[in-house]
Amino acid sequence: MGSMISSQMKEVMGEQMKQNKESMSEMQDTMMERQIVLQDQIRRRQMASQIARARDFVAWYGSFYALAGIGLIAASRRTKNRAYLGPLVPLGFILAYQADLAYGNKMDRIRAEAERIMSDETHYLELPFGRPTLKAVEEARKASKKS
């Protein structure tokens, strides 16, 4: 009779262990999904901040460019010297670059280029000495404790 109870206990405990493993696996999956969503939300907020910063820069730099342009054109007309118009060219490139980032499709082009690099030029993405291993991380952690 004792062996019958013992075998039933083993069966029940085995079933509970299996359920615990499944439950833990589901919890880990849920936690991983949450981390992925969290990291994506953080990334999106950082990108939105970057675009907002670029738009603010365009507003301020555009005002500077307009004032500088008016001043340089006036100086060029007054002195009949076209050399005053020279700075407008590089300043215009800077303004165009920032405007493309702030209002154009520059982010789409950057994303497409990043995807191309990730698919076609993966050798550029390798870390020196390869991917860190758990063993290397533990050794570094232990070494930092000794210091």
The Rg value, from CA coordinates, equals 31 Å
Strand residue content: under 5%
Estimated structural class: mainly alpha
Number of domains: 1
What count of helical segments does DSSP give? 4
Write down how many β-strands occur, each being a DSSP E stretch of 2 or more residues: 0
Mean pLDDT: 92
Transmembrane segments: 57-77
Protein name: Plasminogen receptor (KT)
InterPro entries: Plg-R(KT)
Keywords: Membrane, Transmembrane, Transmembrane helix
SSE topology:
Elements: H1 2-79, H2 88-103, H3 106-120, H4 134-146
Helix pairs in contact: 1-2
Report on the structure:
With 147 residues, this protein is mainly α. The chain has one domain. The chain has helices at 2-79, 88-103, 106-120, 134-146. The radius of gyration is 31 Å and the shape is elongated. The chain contains four helices and no strands.
Question: What structural keywords apply?
Answer:
mainly alpha; 147 residues; single chain
Give me a quick take on this structure:
83% of the residues lie in helices and 0% in strands. The protein is an all-alpha fold and 147 residues long.
